[in-house]
Amino acid sequence: MTPTARDGSPSPAASTAPSGPPPAASESALPAIRVLLGGVAALMVLAAAVTVAGALAVRDRVETHALTGPISAVHVSTEVGDIRTRPAGPGEQPRLDRRVQWSFWDPATTFRAERGRVEAAVHCPPISLMCSSDVELIVPPGAAIEARTGVGDVVVVRADSTVAAEASVGDVEVSLDAAARQVQAVSDTGDVTVRVAPGQSYAVQADTDVGTRELRVASDPASGRVVIARTATGDVRVLAGQ
Question: For residue 94, what pLDDT band results from cuts at 50, 70 and 90?
Fold first, then answer.
């Protein structure tokens, strides 16, 4: 029964009572959800636009540095890119060639040669697009090689001295001639292959945490020649022959 006042009109309580159930909580949150989805969509569009603009704005340059005078060691590093080294041929000028690519922000490159040691590096800006540097190193006889990349492959051909080749993400391949006495080839994620000169004995350490291990040379712990081949995730091979 509907309550009434003494004069017969509906009571105030009856006139102000809600006519239906309150709106569901999900309905009241719809505007906020729409705003959130709109913001996410806008960010995705912005990211796509920046990526396309970066791809269209790719720039590159090639740098060549002659390696003159007595060179005892060469250290080259890049954050993204492949590094390949080989010995200089007869009459060929040892040198370092690198192709640098980037969008918007120019990476910093360094090259120093003093006291028989050469150092060359490429550093990408903290916020960068399409930043990379591929390096080809043509080394003089007897020069020690240190080559490191963050993302990329390292290939060292016919090394005749000490080698330290390292990639965080990428494959590492090193081949040695008879004069080489020590090599360290390491990758965090990637395959590692070392080819030693035939007819030589080596003290070999070859390890992988996740992958296969293939050893096709006789390991002699007493040898003065040392091969260290290691990866966390990938296959490790130490083989005889070039």
Answer: very high
Tally of domains in the chain: 2
Map the chain to HEC letters.
CCCECCCCCECHHHHHCCCCCCCCHHHHHHHHHHHHHHHHHHHHHHHHHHHHHHHHCCEEEEEEEECCCCCCEEEEEEEECCEEEEECCCCCCCEEEEEEEEECCCCEEEEEEECCEEEEEEECCCCCEEEEEEEEEEECCCCEEEEEEEECCEEEEEECCCEEEEEEECCEEEEECCCCCEEEEEEEECCEEEEECCCCCEEEEEEEEECCEEECCCECCCCCCEEEEEEEECCEEEEECC
pTM over 0.90: no
Do 134 and 160 share a structural domain?
no
**Is there a domain that residue 26 lies in?**
no
Domain span including residue 233:
153-242
pLDDT band at residue 55 using 50, 70 and 90 as cut-offs: very low
Q: Are residues 188 and 119 in the same domain?
A: no
* Residue 1 banded pLDDT, cuts 50, 70, 90: very low
Q: Tell whether 157 and 242 lie within a shared domain.
A: yes
